[in-house]
Structure formats: structure tokens, C-alpha cells
Amino acid sequence: MFNLSVLLKGKIGNLFLNFEHHFKSDGITILYGPNGSGKTTIISALGGFINNLETKIFFNGNALHEIDKYPPNKRPFGIMFQNPILFEHLSVEENLDFVVKRNQLKTQNKSLISKEYLINQLELNSLLKRSSENLSGGEKLRVVLARTILKQPNYLLLDEPLSDLDIKYKAKLLVFLKDFNKKFKTPILYITHSIEEISQIGDQIVLIKDGKKIDSGSVSNILNRSSFVDLTGKFESSSILEGIVSRHDQNLHMTTLDLNGQKLIVPGLPGNLNDIVRVRIRSRDVLISSSHIKTRITENELQGLISSIKIENNTAFSELVIVLKNLKNNRKKQKLRARITTYNLKKCKLSINDNVFIYISSVSIDRQAYQSK
């Protein structure tokens, strides 16, 4: 289901924008592309901050591009840009209360998303009495995120919101955003350059380059397409596999996922039993063999069928797409991308439609790229 349709055309600086997309009304959509491709411009135009483009924006049937009728303060979006700004003469709590009071005057309704919920989830209790000008970059970011959500938006637009956070706190906020999206059914449009962030929270992804949309679809599908690899570079080529938590080994801190009847052992405890977990596998970390290797060289052995082979010109490498065997005979097919040397491709005499064995070391699986459903 779609409830946000966008058409933007025109020149901004040296960029000619020609972007059209129908955004889904649920989940988290990633807007991904290189620097200067127009991502921030799109969010700015949605918010009504850019008026010199040919613009058509429809949200729930309303034509928001009518700027006189829908100036920025009357649009149903909560927008957080890269450089968070607070009222520095106010404390953290006063910054939050300013939005709460303004929203109550506007709606005359009790907020669906409470200030207390955000203070707890974003760990702001110790910051409430502090002056905004004395916050670190990461602390300021958390406060601005809370303030943006307190506006009770119908759609949340986030422009690289976690860029100033360390890895540990970034992981916490990614979990928060996913849980918030599920709990309050507020769709999110999220800009990031981090493939780990895409893997962890993205449902849909829109690829943009030079102001134009070049591809879109589910994250698991797009990460296996050449359109994504062309933007990220071959070194970061990867796939997302989805499995059900079937076993925990508390002593060894390992988890077994059921991938349609095949087993994938991953480090850590990414979810509870029967949770669905998504895992990112880098293409360069996949070993392929045409025959079963009796000596267990890795924790994981999967089986699949080669569906495509792309031999790269002027490099030593080839990219393979493998459809994993589905031992449960349901309709879901999962694909894995493997990057190997063309030398190995020839040595193993691999061809399309060959059955292969796939070996993946658990230590290569990035724990930051887990996502539980």
C-alpha cells in the first residue's frame, strides 16, 4: 500500500533532479546513493523547504505541493537533518516541552507518543536539566530525535541521523527505530551511507544517482542486484539471509538459524527462539565448492544452485548468484552472492545450474548487521 507519492524535477546547483517514487505506508524505506545524488534535497522538498522545483507531493490523497495551503509547519512530516539544532537557551527538558505544548495547542489531543516513553527509550533522564549548549554531538542527536518524534508526525524523515554516534549506541538506536516503527506504525524514510544500517533496519530501499531513481525494492532483493553493487563497489557486495532462531548455545554464545531447512550458525544471541533474524553476508566471505569438503573448515555448510555468473573484465574476479536449496518446499527462495577469483571459477569448472556447497565462517558475520523481527 502506498500513501506518499513524490515527483520532483528541476535544477539545484549543479544537480538536475528528476525523481519519482511511490513510498510504502509502512516499514522503513532507505534512500541510498552517493554524495551529491539528491537525497537531502528530496527530504527538504518533502518538508516544503525548497520551492524552486517542479513538485508533486501527494500524502493520503492531499496535494502537499500547494505551498500556500501546506507550508512546512503544516506538513505531516517529522524531519531530522544531519546537523541537529536545539534551542540552546533552553534545557533539554524545556526543548522537549516546547514541542509537546505546541503540539497540544495544534491538535487539542493527548499525544499518542509520550515524552516519558522517549526519555526512557533514548536514555535522556540524566540530560533533562542540562543546557542544550553543553551536550555532546551524540547527546544532542538523541534529544533532537526525541523532539522530532514528539511532533507526532505521520511520516518520519531522517537524514543520516546516527552519523555522530559510536558503534555501541548506534546499535541501540537502530533497535529503537525499528521497534518504534512497529509499535506506532509510523513509516520512516531513512538516509544512510552505512550498509550495516541498511541491513539492520531497512525494509525497502530506493537507489538514487545523479538526481534519478535507478532501482527500488525490498532490501534483500536489491542488495543482490548489480544496481546496488555498482553504487557500493564490488568490495562491499553482500546478501541478506533470513532465518528463524532454532537454538541457542549459551556457553559458546552462538545461535543456530533455520534457513528453510538449512542451518546457519552465527555469533551472539541475535533473537529469541522462533524469532526471524536477518543476517548480512559479504560476498567476499563466501567459499564455493563443486563437491562436499569432508574436513569442516568453517562452522557453516549450505547448499545451492548457481543461477548466474558474471566474469568481470580487467579484474581477477567473478560474481556468482546462488539460489539456496529450500528443504522445506515452501515458496520462499533465498539468494546468496559470492565473489571469487575467475581462476577458482575455472579451476572448479563452475557453470550456471551447477549444484554447489557453500562455506561461511561465523567470525565473518557482522553482529552489527543483525535484525530481528
Structure summary, number of beta strands: 20
Structural class designation: alpha+beta
Low-pLDDT residue spans: none
Assigned CATH superfamily of the largest domain: P-loop containing nucleotide triphosphate hydrolases
Number of domains: 2
Rough outline: globular
Mean of pLDDT: 89
CATH level-1 class of the largest domain: Alpha Beta
CATH architecture term of the largest domain: 3-Layer(aba) Sandwich
Strand order of the largest sheet: 6-7-8-3-9-10
Beta-strand level of the residues, as a percent range? 25-35%
Count of alpha and pi helical runs: 9
Q: How much helical structure, as a percent, in the residues?
A: 10-25%
Largest sheet: 6 strands, mixed
Query: Can you write the helix and strand succession as a string?
Result: EEEHEEEHHHEHEHEEHHEEEEEEEEHEE
Could you please say which CATH topology of the largest domain applies here?
Rossmann fold
Walkthrough of the structure:
With 373 residues, the chain is an alpha+beta fold. Helices cover 23% and strands 35% of the residues. It is built from 9 helices and 20 strands. It has helices at residues 39-46, 92-107, 115-121, 137-149, 167-184, 195-201, 219-222, 226-232, 342-347, and strands spanning 2-12, 15-24, 28-32, 54-59, 62-63, 77-80, 155-159, 188-191, 204-209, 212-218, 238-249, 254-259, 262-267, 276-282, 286-289, 300-311, 317-324, 335-341, 355-360, 371-372. The strands form 4 sheets. A 6-stranded mixed beta sheet has the order 6-7-8-3-9-10, sandwiched between helices. A 5-stranded antiparallel beta sheet has the order 13-12-11-14-20. Helix 2 (92-107) runs parallel beside helix 4 (137-149). The protein is globular, with a radius of gyration of 23 Å.
